[in-house]
Amino acid sequence: TVSEPIGAGGMAEVDAATQESLNREVALKRPRSDRETDEIAASLIGEARMLASLDHPNIPPIHQLGFTDNGQPVIVMKRVRGNSWRALIQDPTHSFWDGQPPFQLKIHLGILQQVCNAVEYAHEKKIIHRDLKTDNVMVGDFGEVYLLDWGVALALEENGERAVDQFSGTLCFAAPEMLSPNAPLTRRTDVYLLGCILHEILTLELRHKGGKLREVIDNALASEAYSYNEDVHPALAAIANKATDRDPDQRYQSVSEFRKAIEEHLAHYQALELLDSTREKLAVLEKLYADREADRDGFKFHETAHLCRFGFQRVAKIAPELEGIQDGLLRVLELQTGFELEMGRIETAGRIILLIRNMQPDWKGLAGLESFLKEVETKLHESSELSTQIQYKLMEELQKKKED
User: Fold this and answer.
1) Do the Cβ atoms of 21 and 63 come closer than 8 Å?
2) CA–CA separation, 84 vs 73, rounded Å?
3) By C-alpha distance, which of 264, 11, 53, 18 is closest to 155?
4) DSSP letter, residue 211
5) What is the DSSP letter of 126?
6) Short-list 240, 137, 249, CA closest to 187
């Protein structure tokens, strides 16, 4: 039973329906009523059979292929509820973002990773999508990501190439070889399209623009490197430009390479979050040091100091270019040294000072800590001498009493 229309494209329309036998919601895809041609019917049949071979969490499954009374194909597929990814990119105030973390770029890059997973899987099956774009990605109500519209997907030959004699796809995203009749399509064609998606994430604009059709085509054929604004991280700009290089040999040679570049950059954001949380712990450590008389056993102080040191060292390992890592670590070591000296534990303090000297011999605070160490050593030495003198004096007094 058909309930409501979901959407329509150039060749097909999609309606929501209920599959009575299983009492479940499904989506029905069929030729548009004004485009019921043998060519479009064959295309939809081919899409259904191709999708049936792609069993992946990020690709909506096909339930059934049927035909209407007049012989037109109908694809019965999973009903996906959610939002077009393009709508989420273009509208940062969309209700989808309510309650989400404020850093939307990180979420978009995570969605892109999932799209890459679907494309990688298809490439293993020697299938390229050819129409990768944000309009063809649905983000479900519970964070599911689905790559849709496989209507122009192609099976590659054994050599990993496929020659085509006409354009299919979306011009604003098109790779140069898609518009060049003598250039075969390969997996790197989809890499280019993924780079165009990244470009839209970073700029909110399509990769190829123009007031006239010829201008859009010329821009696609040229595929010149894009000059991104300063607010775009240089690493992401480099990834987008490499993926959309005019020469397929200069692009990432696989979707896996492209995805791993995105993952490496996501580690940068994870490092930023860890750096922020470690700085918060350092603020707690400062308070514990200021109120050290209330924590004489030092349990809370030492526990917090350990977490701070681990945090700064971890950030230094995964994103050493971030500012403030070494300053934060040195401050933790400085507080630890001060705490140990206040407690009279000069051996422990000495080991920390040696660590600082090996790590940053020119650090301006080192001389102050070493002076503090000598001061405490002197006091302890004087205290020890005084204690010895007192003990001798007491022994002399006791000896005199015995003689009397």
Assistant:
1) no
2) 25
3) 53
4) S
5) T
6) 249
3-state helix, strand, coil in the chain (%, to 5): 55, 15, 30
Find the catalytic residue in 15, 34, 55, 131: 131
pLDDT tens for the chain, 404 residues long, are: 677 888 777 778 888 888 888 888 898 888 888 777 888 888 888 888 888 999 999 999 999 888 888 888 998 988 888 899 999 999 999 988 887 777 899 999 999 999 999 999 999 999 999 999 999 999 987 889 999 988 889 999 999 999 998 898 899 999 999 998 889 999 999 999 999 999 999 999 999 998 899 999 999 999 999 999 999 989 999 999 999 999 999 999 999 999 999 998 888 888 888 999 999 999 999 999 988 777 667 789 999 999 999 999 999 988 888 889 999 999 999 999 888 888 878 888 888 888 888 888 888 877 888 787 777 667 655 555 445 444 555 555 555 555 55
Which residue is associated with the tokens 């499904």? 26
Distance of CA 245 to the CA centre of its chain: 22
The edge-to-edge listing of strands for the beta sheet with 62-67 is: 2-8, 12-19, 24-31, 73-78, 62-67
Other C-beta atoms lying within 10 Å of the C-beta of residue 366: 19
Strand residues in 62-199 grouped as ranges (E): 62-67, 73-78, 82-84, 127-128, 137-140, 145-147, 154-155
**CA 79-64-83 angle, 5° bins:** 15
Tell me the two tokens of residue 64.
């059934």
Rounded Cα–Cα distance for residues 32 and 35 (Å): 5
Q: Is 131 a catalytic residue?
A: yes
Alpha carbon distance 197, 31 (integer Å): 27
- As to burial, measured by CB atoms within 10 angstroms (0-12 exposed, 13-18 middle, 19+ buried), residue 347 is exposed
How far is the CA of 17 from the CAs of 72, 75, 108, 114, 334, in angstroms?
A: 17, 12, 30, 27, 67
Amino acid 328 reads G
Element (H, E) at 29: strand 24-31
How far is Cα 87 from Cα 293, in angstroms, rounded to an integer? 57
